[in-house]
Amino acid sequence: MSHVITMKTVTLSQVLGYVRGGEHTAQQEEILDTMREWARAHQHRIDHQGIDWGLTVPEALEHLIAGRADTEGPSVGYAYYAALLAVLECTGSDPVDMGVYSKPSTFFGLMDGELRALGVPADLLPTRYLFADFPDLLPFPVPSPTDGYPAIGYLPLAKAKAVADAYKAVLDRIDHRFSLDAKLLADKLDVEHEEWQTALKYGHTMDLLVFCIQG
Predict the structure, then answer these.
(1) What share of the chain is helix, strand, coil (3-state, %, to 5)?
(2) 212 - beta bridge partners?
(3) What angle do CA 116, 2, 210 make, to 5 degrees?
(4) Is the pLDDT of residue 140 over 90?
(5) Mean of the per-residue pLDDT values for the chain?
């Protein structure tokens, strides 16, 4: 199965504002309605495939909005992660395509080893942010999908330049199997850093890159 990786920028506090429970502003309620539409559309596709996760995506979204993810079951993680994708879909920037991989955890795990051997610090390696597990930033635990996908990683925008610079410094020495992907990551993160710096000058508050791996 192929897995598509996308990246977008968000303001973490804004995302958390939708999944904390309690009251929401009128503007937030409008966005929540859009999230609910997204969740219903996603559930329609799941139903069409005859898949039953033991919890629907709209139900999971309501749980997240209420500040919990406490339904148990072997497959409920898929519903909760789909609901979290609904939240992320409706907040932050438009997604940027980062490529398609058949086995992303395997490929980027091997890239980790190559970059580590070339002196790239451990906290800047690809799997550290691609598979960082964004739900860990929520104020309550969220069950994970049993096969690891979708995966939702994250990287603080303040670290984007450090990652890009570290990869660019070894591009002339990295194994050819990883050179194009390392350059792609470096180029994309460079652009995100520059746009973030410009946005800060105009009072924007986005502070996090989120990576969604679906397939």
Answers:
(1) 55, 15, 35
(2) 6, 152
(3) 60
(4) yes
(5) 97
